[in-house]
Every structure is written in structure tokens, then in C-alpha cells.
Predict the structure.
Amino acid sequence: MGTLLLYVEQHAGVLKKSAYELATQGSRLAKEKGLDLAALLIGNNLGNLGEDLGAYGVKNLYHGCHPDLDSYKAAAHAAVLTQMSQDLKAEIILASASLAGLEVLPRVGACLKAGVASDCTALKIANGKLVATRPVFAGKALVDVHFSSAVQIASLRPNSCPPQVSAPGAKLKPQKKELSPASSGLIVKEVKEASVGKVDLAEAEIIVSGGRALGSQENFKILQDLAQPLGAAVGASRAAVDAGYAKHEMQVGQTGKTVNPKLYIACGISGAIQHLAGMQTSKVIVAINKDPEAPIFSRADYGIVGDLFEVVPALTEEVKKLHR
Amino acid sequence: MKIAIFLKQVPDTASKIQILSGGAGYESNGIKYIVNPYDELAIEAALQVKEKVAGSEVLVVSLGPARVVEAIRTALAMGADRGIHIDDEGQTYDNFQTSCALAEIARREAVDLIFCGKKAIDDDASQTVSTLAELLQWPACTPVLRFELKADHQGAILGRNMSAGVEEISEVSFPAIIGCEKGLNTPRYASLPGIMKAKSKPLAVVKGLKSGDPLCSLENWHSPAARSAGQIIDGPSVLAKVQVLVKRLHEEAKVI
């Protein structure tokens, strides 16, 4: 029997949330296609990490270990994933559309001559093969990717699918595979963790975002204050970034990050088509803007017309009350 | 040193994407095309290396129909030396076939360093840098925010954000492929003399680079589901409105 292989990731000794999303999707697809669901975690000294994936339908857990794999390297991970895919006769390979997923999968695809669909929002089986739906033009359109290759590879956008336990309490015993990863001409010198526990925009469940109306970098603190009790990440519109009020990596939109949170709170953002493209798949959109004609209100589920400098602090207080 | 920019011409970000009936694709008539914004960073990065390394040449390559020549000329106007248009001859290239064609040019031209945008804003696939890495067996890094050429010009120190607040510093030896991220640099404007010079810079057309069969095809183009109309929360005061909002988000939407 062939395999549906999941490339799962960990950060600081904890399995990433995306692993459970992948297991849930993988479980459904593996059942439909009659494949064995397996997960591969690559690193060093992994202990029992990933054992709880059994509860989400995974049947086999593999640890690809080597001292060289202490820190993440794309070429090494791609080599290990390619080797395991061949060993397990993987017909479908899935990963999260994280930085690693996006750069590892195309390498594996090129090696196996397998098609790769990046950053997909829906997966299904049709005519015995994976069909992956993905947004293009930053979400202005959706398209289905059909594969002619024997192996189908796809990465799943974070937060596209809520994790679902199918076998409560089931634990897997990790099967260790000692592999020598290929070396590449790229040497990782240092990994600096600037701030602990910062939420990545592309993976955030809640985002508080600000536009040029914030007026200064210092004023973005008002949004940080709201983000904090919500456990949210802070984003910005291109106008705010171009004005120097927010860093490039905070930009949400067609030339910034595409986000998929369950809640997106847009503060002082007018809602230009390019910004909407980056956040329109958000489950719930809240807009706070002084201008009742702002285009953002046409996409928002809830809107408050008002001065963000009054509304946002008041909202922060009410959220804190809720959490008490 | 031979530096290559692999660039893509894409629809302008303000373009409305009109799906053709039957979902076979989108309407390309009337679309304004631009250089992929991430590739502008690649052009600037290549030019900055050229300025540091005497006797180097910057080659700009683009795959597509005749209209992509305009994008190549833009790069030449900014300061690139020579262009290559890979004519797609009206055929569709999937991501893999595109990378194969670009890799072939990299080999033929004995390129030392490739810059391209981390992704193209039309298909958002983010695959080219990584696919090229495997095809050429060169080290690659994407999305790169910091690029520092080493003093011996044989490699570079790179910086990229792995995820929020986590920065990875790495060192690469050439030949290498660099995927450019916003924040790497500020692309220069083409000067008027640059635009004039670009008209007579060499621009070769290459055909017949399509290899093999496609691994993927795109079908059933469709629009995202329309969002149902939302509600403007009214009230006698900011406090009252905010209280209603929090209640709805908690009880109705169940997101907080």
C-alpha cells in the first residue's frame, strides 16, 4: 500500500500547530485514496515528539535524525524527505505552507519529477489523484491544480483546516531513521530569536492591523496593547509601511503577506484592493475607520465608524474585561 | 562576475482579475503589465553587486510572450547590461518547466550569481528559487532581507526572517541563487539616459527551451466566495459600540 507522507515541523521542542492541521487533512485524504498515513519529523534529539499525532489519524511516525540536523537547513531536509518518500512509496506528500514547507517541497518535487502546489486552501481526491485548490493574485481568484505526475505534492495554508481528533489518546512510537543529509554550499551561522513568543502573521489566528491613520511608529503601540490580551499578531497596510510606521515584515496585502486568521481587526485601514487581497479569507473581519465610505466596510463582518484613537483603547479595555 | 536576474512580467496589482466563463483562465485583454515587484528588488541587488565588482556583467532573463521584452528593457534601463527573452511561443509552461528553461540559460551563460524575487505576485507559487537550487545543485536562500558581498567576492553573508522575530544569518559560496524579499533594498528609478541607452543594449531571443511534459495544470479558475454583508455597529457612545462588538465577537462569531 502506498503512503501519504506528512512533513511536520517543530519549533523549540514543540510540534507546530500546523502538524495537527496536516494530520487532519491527511487522514481524510488517505482514507479516500487508500493510503497509509505517515508523518516525518526531521531534526536531532527529538525524543517522543509527534507521538500525539496518532490521535489525529497518523499511523506511522518517523524521526529523520542526524547531528547535522540540529538546526534547520532546506537542502538537508529536502534530501531526507525525498529519501523517506521513496522508501515509503509516498504517492502524496503534504506540508504546511510555512517558510520551510515552501522551500523544501519544490526541491523534493524537482528531484522526484513531481508537481508541487504551494499554499493551498483546499485539498481533495478526484480521479485517483490529489486536486489542490489555491488562491492566485493574492486571493483575487482561486484555481485547481491537477497533477499529471505519479507523486503529488502540496503545501497547506496555515489555519485552513481546524485540527480534529479522530482517535483520542492514541500515541505513536517514533521510528528513528539515521540518514546522512546532503551538505549544500550554504552554512547557517546564527539563528537569533529576537523576541520570545512573537506570533507569525502568516500563522496567526488573530491579527490586529493598522493603516496610515496611525500616524507614527509610536502609535502602533495602541495596536500592540489590543493584540496582547488577544494573543494576536500585529500587521500593517502598505501605506503604513511606506510611511515608515511599521516594518516590511508586518505588511499584509498583495505585495506583503497573505494571512488567514479567524479574526482580522483593521484599524484605520481604508481597504484598498491590494490590501483586501491579502486578508479576505479571514473568517471574521472587523473594521474601525473614521470614514463611513471606506471600502473596508463592504468586506467587514462588523464595523465601527469612529476615531481609532478612541475606539481601539476602549476595545482593549473591554477585551481585557472579557478575559478576566 | 556574471550576475543574472530572472524576472517575471505580471499584471499590475490594481488589475481586476476577470474569470473567463467556463473557468479556463482569466481575461488578459486590457491588463496593464509590470515587472514583478519582488523582481525589482532582484534588479537592484544585482546592480549593487556589479557596482562593487569590476568587470562584471548583469544579464536579465525573462520567460514569456513578446510583451515581456518591455519588462526586460525596464531592467536594462535601470542598468542591466544584456537581456535574454525566452520566447514561450504561445505555450503554457508550468512551474517546473519554467525553472528548467531558466536553469538551462544559467548553464549556457556560466552565471555566477542569480537574483530573483521570492515569488511572483500573479501565481504566488514561491517555487522558482528552490526548484532552481535542485536543478542546478547550487545553494539557495529565500526570502533574503540582507545581502552582504564578501570581500573576496566569492560568496555572501545573508539574512532572512524564519518566522516572527527569528532571524537566520547564513553564509553562501557562489554560484548561488538569492530570492529577494521586501526590505532588501530600495530599487532605483530608471534615469532618462538609462532609458535611452536601454534601447540599444543587446537583447537576444531564445526559443525551443520547453522541456518534457507539464507536471501540473491549472483548471477551474473561479472567484472566491462572496462574503455576506456585514453590520455597522451603532450606539450612543464609543464605549457602547465597543461593548456590543466584543459581545458579538464572543457570542455570535465565537472568535474571542
User: Anything to note?
Assistant: Chain A touches chain B through 96 residues (CB under 8 Å).
